[in-house]
Write a structure and sequence with these properties.
Layout: E1 7-8, H1 19-24, E2 27-34, E3 37-48, E4 54-61, H2 63-66, E5 72-79, E6 85-95, H3 98-101, E7 103-104, E8 111-114, H4 116-124, E9 129-130, E10 134-135, H5 142-146, E11 153-158, E12 172-177, E13 191-194, E14 206-211, E15 215-216, E16 222-223, E17 228-242, E18 247-251, E19 263-273, H6 280-286
Parallel strand pairs: 3-10
Antiparallel strand pairs: 1-4, 2-3, 3-4, 4-8, 5-6, 5-9, 7-8, 11-12, 11-14, 13-19, 14-17, 15-16, 17-18, 17-19
């Protein structure tokens, strides 16, 4: 992994956008075509070590999305003169030698693709990309996770199935609920289930706690006004049931292939807790990245 530089903060202030408009431009469709077989998955921009001075931008996805790939690419919107996104003109980012350019989590199905150098080259060439990113402030702390309810309203955005807006390079939103308590490790792992399907290509999609018109906390207090949005997970798998009734969680498919055995869809997806994203920061420091002055890592 050669890219270990902190990218300076943008000089201009971002244009006003609603939360969902920003999320629409935070995800990318990671794709690869080899020997006629197309594989794809979802990734999203995350700013590690975010401070007022800059950040370390990387695309977050699943390890299984990148497994076996030599390279991959994705498109982002270009930026208009007024700072707004141009969804009719797309910029292609090609990532060669993806295995050496990425950092893979040692124990869970997560990977990051540093893109700071790629973004700087586009900006230097006068073709600024329009890409919104998430950061540590959106991930609940341990105490905040404990305040969640077993059933919460969720929102995810990504590129499930073969249906997406390829003309404007825009993703699909999907709403649902948590199927297991997000604050309790499902089967002893930092994972939880969601009550919506993870289609081929949706692996790597960010999963948000999303309340538009208020919510109730675990003490029965009703919070009114504003939008509550928190990044609580990364989609990685699907729950499938075979003809014998046995149910298992499998990595989300990255292509459309004929099933090797009969299975029944359950409409349940599996997510890794977003808190595990923070474990990449000490891994990046071990790779040579210098922690910004004043930045405090939540994972050690």
């Amino acid at each position: 992994m050669a890219d270990t530089a902190i990218l300076p903060a943008a000089a201009s202030a971002p244009i006003p956008m609603t939360p969902t408009e920003q999320l629409m431009h935070a995800v990318v469709r990671i794709s690869n075509e080899t020997a006629g077989q197309v594989r794809w998955g979802t990734g999203f921009l995350f700013h590690f070590f975010q401070t007022s001075a800059g950040s370390f931008p990387a695309i977050v996805t699943n390890k299984h999305v990148l497994e076996g790939l030599k390279d991959c690419s994705f498109f982002v919107a270009s930026t208009n003169a007024d700072g707004s996104p141009n969804s009719d003109k797309h910029l292609k980012l090609e990532i060669p030698d993806i295995q050496s350019m990425s950092l893979f989590h040692p124990s869970v199905d997560l990977a990051i693709i540093p893109i700071g150098n790629h973004l700087q080259k586009l900006i230097a060439a006068g073709t600024a990309p329009f890409l919104r990113g998430l950061d540590q402030s959106l991930i609940p702390t341990t105490e905040e996770f404990k305040q969640l309810l077993p059933v919460e309203q969720l929102l995810t955005v990504g590129f499930p199935g073969q249906l997406w807006d390829d003309v404007h390079n825009l993703p699909i939103f999907h709403r649902g609920y948590s199927a297991t308590a997000p604050y309790i490790d499902f089967k002893g792992k930092q994972e939880f289930l969601v009550d919506f399907a993870i289609w081929p290509g949706a692996s790597g999609s960010p999963v948000f706690l999303y309340n538009e018109n208020g919510y109730m906390d675990r003490h029965g207090n009703t919070m009114m006004g504003g939008v509550r949005i928190k990044l609580i997970g990364v989609a990685f798998g699907v729950a499938v049931q075979d003809v014998t009734g046995n149910m298992t969680i499998q990595a989300g498919p990255t292509s459309v292939i004929a099933p090797t055995r009969m299975s029944v869809p359950t409409n349940l997806g599996a997510c890794i807790s977003a808190a595990r994203l923070l474990e990449f920061e000490p891994l990046l420091v071990a790779k040579g990245l210098t922690t910004p002055v004043g930045y405090k890592m939540r994972a050690t």
